[in-house]
Design a protein that fits this description.
By secondary structure, the protein is mainly beta. It has two domains: 36 residues, no CATH class; 145 residues, no CATH class. The chain contains one helix and six strands. The strands form two sheets. Strands 1-6-5 form a three-stranded antiparallel sheet, with no helix packed on it. Strands 2-3-4 form a three-stranded antiparallel sheet, with no helix packed on it.
């Protein structure tokens, strides 16, 4: 009597041969995903420890305005990183992060004129990460979010014939720290990904032109 292959193994081989039939994306909320077809060895950066720091920095500007033409509004329109972030392990379990960013604001004066100011700000922060400095682990830091939340006039003081104006820009900063190691992991998989679909090419930036015909006004009887 002919012996047929084990159903599960045969099914796995069949799925593996038709990997393009496995849909990419979220699993079905009721039925879940199809079972993996193989266990593969991959070379990846494994996260052994991580932490985040969310903070709002106050960056101060100073502007000498005329007493009869004060600052009536402030717009914070740009913030970008100039240097960093740089992260160093300064002692076992202790990490220091340094970043320098540039803030640009626009002042609206009472007569409707505007002035632009630029200021650089360097932030140095020290954090506790118990596994920092451990053999085989390396440190990675990133600031994925940096945003100017608000800018406003904090104080005005008349000095001689000028109005010394103190302005504050509130900068939201999200710092992400990770301790990683380059490792080989055995993970379940579905084989190689299918070929991606064709990109939707934009053939022309000009809009379509579909004039109505005939180009004559309707006749009235």
């Amino acid at each position: 009597m002919k012996k047929f292959p084990d159903d599960k193994k045969y099914q796995a081989l069949t799925v593996k041969d038709h990997i393009a039939d496995v849909p990419l994306g979220p699993c079905d909320p009721i039925y879940g995903c199809s079972p993996p077809t193989e266990v593969v060895c991959v070379l990846v950066d494994k996260v052994y420890d991580e932490c985040k720091n969310v903070q709002v920095d106050e960056v101060r500007f100073y502007y000498e305005a005329a007493p009869d033409n004060p600052v009536v509004d402030v717009i914070c329109y740009k913030v970008e990183i100039c240097e960093g972030p740089e992260c160093d392990i300064i002692a076992p379990g202790r990490v220091r992060v340094t970043v320098t960013y540039q803030v640009k604001i626009k002042l609206i004066l009472e007569d409707g004129s505007t002035e632009k100011l630029t200021e650089e700000n360097t932030v140095v922060k020290t954090f506790n990460m118990p596994r920092a400095g451990e053999a085989g682990l390396y440190l990675s830091c990133d600031i994925p979010f940096l945003e100017c939340l608000q800018a406003f006039v904090e104080e005005e003081e008349l000095e001689y014939d000028e109005l010394r104006t103190s302005i504050v820009a509130c900068i939201g900063r999200y710092t992400l720290l990770k301790l990683l190691a380059r490792v080989q992991l055995a993970i379940p998989a579905y084989g190689f990904c299918p070929e991606p679909p064709d990109c939707d090419e934009v053939l022309s930036e000009c809009p379509d032109f579909n004039p109505e015909w005939p180009p004559y006004p309707p006749q009235t009887r």
